[in-house]
Amino acid sequence: MSDRVREVLKKHSFKLTDLAEKLGINYAPFNKKINKPTLKTLEELSILTGISVIEFQNAPEGYSHFYDGSTGQWEGIRRK
């Protein structure tokens, strides 16, 4: 899941170092937290960034995350 978290944060132009600073922790512990994020970590990121907890999670097999083609806005998870 860590790849998905990083992918979403990058898509929304968030820098990991900036987020770690806003959470009041050094980069190394923050990096460890997002490598295997707990629900609490995802909730913290959601509050900090405004990104839905569900968007951080991998879509089930046969489904994918759907983004609006013109705005890039996340619109949910849909069947492929």
Describe the structure concisely.
The chain has 80 residues and is of the alpha+beta class.
What does it look like?
- The protein has 80 residues and is of the alpha+beta class.
- The protein has a single domain, classed as 434 Repressor (Amino-terminal Domain), CATH 1.10.260.
- 52% of the residues lie in helices and 14% in strands.
- The chain has a two-stranded antiparallel ribbon with strand order 1-2.
- A hairpin with a 6-residue loop joins β1 and β2.
- The longest helix has 11 residues.
- It is globular, with a radius of gyration of 13 Å.
- The two termini are 20 Å apart.
- The model has no long low-confidence stretch (mean pLDDT 93).
Strand line-up of the largest beta sheet: 1-2
CA-based shape: globular
Largest sheet: 2 strands, antiparallel
Contiguous low-pLDDT stretches (5 residues minimum) are none
**Structural class designation:** alpha+beta
Kindly provide the name of the CATH class: Mainly Alpha
CATH architecture: Orthogonal Bundle
Order of helices and strands: HHHHHEE
Q: What is the residue-mean pLDDT, rounded to a whole number?
A: 93
Rg result: 13 Å
CATH topology: 434 Repressor (Amino-terminal Domain)
Oligomer: single chain
User: Strand-residue fraction?
Assistant: 5-15%
Helix content: 40-55%
The counted number of beta strands is 2
Taking the alpha carbons of the first and last residues, their distance comes to 20 Å
Number of helices: 5
